[in-house]
Design brief:
Layout (H helix, E strand, L loop, with lengths): L9 H20 L17 E12 L3 E12 L3 E9 L3 E5 L2 H10 L16 E3 L2 E7 L2 H11 L5 H12 L2 E9 L11 E4 L2 E7 L17 E10 L11 E10 L2 E13 L16
Length: about 280
């Protein structure tokens, strides 16, 4: 999502947080009917995950996930958020695992996706102000203070995720060079993210949430297991198999590729969501 006013200081911060608290209390009193507080809805927010390259390691006890995103956005400041298991361990890491897997499988990862060539002038950016929201109250309060907002369907999506016992992670990032053409998005890529959580079954990552810019995401995802498997991906096609070594451990690899629609959209052909007038 695009962030309109990313930093607030002094008395203005005190006033804004007080106002945000009052709105959160009103929403909670109305059972989170967001239409009673349309100021929480996004206005002209355009930022989306354009491509996603992931490696999942599943050993029967836990899932280790390392991923690299390419993100598009109109503006200068943005935030990236999404639901994750509440017992996840998260860190920023390097791309060694992705590069090792691609080299041993004989490919170039996300660059092998037929549409990736359409992404031009990709900027390297840094994530900052990392945080996790454990309740809906925390998330909505942050959105109001920073005036970033969410689309109605995205809000309903995270409501369901909190009810499942999940939490929402959040990173901020900033374009190094804004587009010279008004309303033309800048394309950005940050360092890899990694998170680990216990699981006795393979859990695939959710599709990205819709942020008003692109309703589809390019994916290349590789599953690494200790023993052979015929596991399939819920949204992507199998494009390769093999064996790879990383960290002195031998893995069986299955690689998947494709394009998916975003979560949090209202269906094909639906207009972009805005606050109700």
């Amino acid at each position: 999502m695009a962030v309109v006013r990313p930093f607030v200081q002094g008395p203005d911060y005190v006033a804004r947080t007080r106002q945000a608290t009052e709105v959160v209390q009103k929403l909670a009193g109305n059972r989170w009917n967001f239409d009673v507080a349309p100021e929480v809805y996004a206005r002209n927010s355009r930022a989306d995950v354009l491509s996603k390259e992931l490696v999942h390691i599943f050993d029967g006890r836990r899932v280790i996930r390392v991923g690299r995103l390419v993100i598009g956005g109109v503006g200068e400041y943005f935030n990236l958020m999404g639901p994750i298991p509440s017992d996840s361990a998260i860190k920023i890491t390097d791309a060694r695992l992705l590069e090792a897997v691609n080299a041993q499988l004989g490919g170039s990862g996300i660059q092998d996706h037929p549409d990736y060539k359409n992404l031009k002038n990709v900027q390297e950016v840094e994530f900052f102000n990392y945080g996790m929201f454990h309740t809906l109250e925390e998330l909505v309060h942050w959105l109001l203070v920073h005036e970033t907002g969410c689309y109605p369907s995205t809000l309903q999506h995270v409501v369901r995720e909190f009810a499942r016992g999940r939490i929402v992670q959040n990173y901020m990032y900033r374009a190094n060079l804004r587009s010279k053409v008004p309303d033309e998005p800048v394309i950005m890529q940050a360092r890899c993210m990694s998170y680990t959580f216990p699981s006795s079954v393979m859990e695939w990552m959710d599709r990205p949430l819709f942020g008003g810019l692109a309703k589809e995401t390019m994916h290349v995802e590789t599953l690494l297991t200790l023993s052979p498997t015929d596991a399939s991906h819920p949204h992507l096609q199998l494009v390769g198999e093999g064996r790879v070594e990383f960290g002195h451990q031998l893995f069986y690899a299955r690689q998947f590729m494709g394009t998916t629609g975003k979560d949090g959209t209202r269906g094909p052909g639906a207009p972009e969501e805005t606050a109700k007038k």
